Amino acid sequence: MWTVLGGEMLNVVYELRYMILLSAILILADLWWGHSDAMKRYAKAEMNDDRVGMEKYRWRKSRAIRRTANKFTDYLTFLLIGSFLGLAIIEPIGLGNHVYSAIVGLTIGCLAEIASIIGHYFYVKFEVEFRISDTWKLLVHIFVKIVKIKNKDIGKALEEVEQETK
């Protein structure tokens, strides 16, 4: 049983190898921008002689490595959970295969990482606090525009939903 299950999981990992690579690149980009963000906030706290802020934004290498490794583990877990849900639910009812549900699981992780990168980027470049909710609104807006290019009817419906939720 474990051999079959492991073989299927390795197949999913192989089929999504580029998405896993994208996840790793996003995690490293978030580490880079997070470090830049922390250094800028630390310098600002130091300039204001804010000891609490300095301690909060002091760079901790071990914490950064631990969080980065933890994110990668989380995203692989999203991939496996998505794949298991696909095998258990999506395939039996005929909605697709387990690779598609694994893609959805890993996409959740990638979108969260992109939201984090955007937040760090806006603070480092413009010193603007960009909340995660703002980032999600921006990503949803971009997604709706892409869907509208591909299919005008679905894009228009999504645009109406987006306007109603504002």
Q: List the secondary-structure elements in sequence, H or E.
A: HHHHHHH
- Measured by DSSP, the beta-strand proportion falls in under 5%
Helicity, as a percent range = over 70%
Low-confidence stretches: none
Span from first to last CA? Answer: 49 Å
What's the number of helices? 7
**Number of β-strand runs:** 0
Shape: flat
Structural class: mainly alpha
Count of discrete domains: 2
Oligomer: single chain
* Mean pLDDT across every amino acid position: 86
Rounded to an integer in angstroms, the radius of gyration calculated over CA atoms is 20 Å
Q: What about the largest sheet?
A: none
Describe the structure.
- This protein has 166 residues and is mainly alpha-helical.
- Helix content is 89%, strand content 0%.
- It contains 7 helices and no strands.
- The chain has helices at 2-15, 17-47, 51-57, 61-93, 98-126, 132-150, 152-165.
- Helix 2 runs parallel beside helix 5 (98-126) and helix 4 packs antiparallel against helix 5 (98-126).
- The radius of gyration is 20 Å and the shape is flat.
